[in-house]
Amino acid sequence: MPVIRIELLINAPVEIVFDLARSIEIHAKSTAHTKEKPVAGVTSGLIELGQTVTWEAIHFGIKQRLTAKITIMERPYRFVDEQVRGAFKHFKHTHEFSAVPNGTKMVDIFEYTSPLGVLGRLADKWFLEAYMHDFLLQRNLYIKAAAEDALRNG
């Protein structure tokens, strides 16, 4: 099972970063390159514990839907979303936030299992793990920019 870990330092308070990371609108903007949009469940605002969101996006030229549920929420330090339905056999996405001297350390840990057994594991090695790393990094850099812009612009 691949585990992707991304750490970023963000020059903004932990509360701001935490809320941006669970904002439906920020998620949609940060993934615009895949035409990702919420189509069911929570479709705007801040997602909360026990709530679900269904995202529709285009990955690898194929329109897909994925439903995730917030299974843990410890504001403003941690939340976890897990796949309820979608292309993965399983995924668990842990978002951690800690206050540091110049702002927030944001850690993303994405654990997943691809479908299709051996073929899925080959896909992980050949392209999927790198694709998911880049997808999550781009999203996190968007959150960083939004948080630092919010701090600058009040």
TrEMBL record:
Domain of life: Bacteria
UniProt xrefs under SUPFAM superfamilies: Bet v1-like
Record-linked InterPro entries: START-like_dom_sf
Name of this protein: Ligand-binding SRPBCC domain-containing protein
Lineage, top ranks: Bacteria, Bacillati, Bacillota, Bacilli, Bacillales
